[in-house]
Design brief:
single chain; alpha/beta; TIM Barrel; Alpha-Beta Plaits; 2 domains; eight-stranded parallel β-barrel; four-stranded antiparallel β-sheet; 20 strands
Length: 406
Amino acid sequence: MDLAVTYLKKRFENPFVLASGPPTANADMIARAFEAGWAGAVIKTLILEPVRNLHNRFASLRAGPEIIGFENIELLSERSPDAWFRDIRRLKSGFPGKQVIGSIMGDALHPGPWLELALGCQDAGCDLVELNFSCPHGCPEKGGGAVIGQNADYAGTIMAWLRNERRLTVPLIPKLTAATADIAGIGRAVAAAGADGLCAINTFPSIMGVDLQTLLPRPAVAGRTAAGGYSGPGLKPIALRCVSDLVKQPGLPVMACGGVSSGMDAAEFILLGAPIVQVCTAVMLNGYALLERMKTELREFMSAHGFAAPGDFLGRANRCVGAFSELDPAYRVTGVVDEAKCNGCGLCAVSCRDAASQAIAMAGRLARIDAGKCCGCSLCAQVCPPQAIKMVRADRPPAGVRQSPP
């Protein structure tokens, strides 16, 4: 089963690429990732004057022991452009089959830094260059990052600066933010100015929480915090929507980023039209070796559906995404309980009673749904711990589910 994909005429041995972030902070780390099988890596974003990152810059959101959301107030690379250019050459020499992707940032007013960094990445051997129009913290207040990705004029102008530089031939990929009213509008602006592809999305502006013992917001730096970038599994639904929108318009090839932590997550993004998925937070929490599990899971998904390569299902699900007005108001479903799975917890009955149509009653240790009362909302199926409730067409008998009459 071949996991290789092509993006902007570049061959990736599999769809998995390290996103710009802590796992790509230097060449030695990227080299270890390449040895572990990652197809490519986006270097930590370059600026002309390297930054110094804060201590205590991470926070997490947990559901029990599991981290379901993550926040950072980390900035850009702490290394100089010249040091990175040397390392890019070394990476391309040592790993010619891997894709090394530059990442650069300037501000919205001055073309010089953008041109200098893009040409430097190209001359060092980068296969693609990502334009960071999306960092949500630290940079916007200085005229960079998300302040660009939220403004079509800024984004289009910077893209045009780069595209009009005749020496610059490397493919250019703006990385966009979901913190805008119309990400497709920003996509159209950079496409019109000459972007080759798009990446969606960066982290989302957030405050992770407040420590109820210290009464300080998290993460706290000497007793204070600032809004940071939200990532991890909780970001995936937002990223999926943005990828779907951008694949439809402007229609440039999209790299997906945001909440990818499994091969099944990757399959969802590929189904919506993104052949490449970037991963950061999941690697921070699990290490580079996570790749083998993700590849195995993606192969299992493909085998179950008879797909031989990711291209066989690229964009297949996005055909089913449209405007709310296009949805069928005559479509009817009702809940059906599989008695073999029902554990009698009663959570479905409580949820239906207090937030739906009062259609569920407990008969001893079994939930029973009154189809005449059921409004088809699917709340019961969402809350059921053993997933014993399925939604079936109201005008069709359920298949393969044992159910007694109410």
